[in-house]
């Protein structure tokens, strides 16, 4: 890929973790913590 086409910044939007937790009877923040492991895999 030509260097000028390589992005200088990339954004990761973590969405749905609150809903994921709610569906499992957890509080919203537990969903945010559960999203940490997949995020670390990506980065």
Task: Jot down its keywords.
Undecaprenyl diphosphate synthase; mainly alpha; 43 residues; UPP_synth-like_sf
Please outline the helices and strands.
Blueprint: H1 17-23, H2 28-34, H3 36-42
Largest sheet: none
Structural class: mainly alpha
Give me the count of strands: 0
Binned, the helix content reads 40-55%
- End-to-end separation: 20 Å
The stretches of 5 or more residues where confidence is low (pLDDT under 50) are none
Radius of gyration: 15 Å
Shape: elongated
Following the backbone from N to C, one meets helices and strands in this order, namely: HHH
Count of helical regions: 3
How much strand?
Answer: under 5%
Q: What's the overall average pLDDT, rounded?
A: 90
In short:
The chain is mostly helical and 43 residues long.
Report what the structure shows.
- The chain is mainly alpha-helical and 43 residues long.
- It has three helices and no strands.
């Amino acid at each position: 890929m030509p260097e000028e086409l390589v992005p200088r910044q990339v954004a990761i939007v973590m969405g749905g973790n609150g809903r994921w937790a709610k569906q499992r009877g957890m509080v919203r923040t537990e969903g945010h913590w559960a999203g940490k492991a997949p995020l670390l895999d990506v980065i």
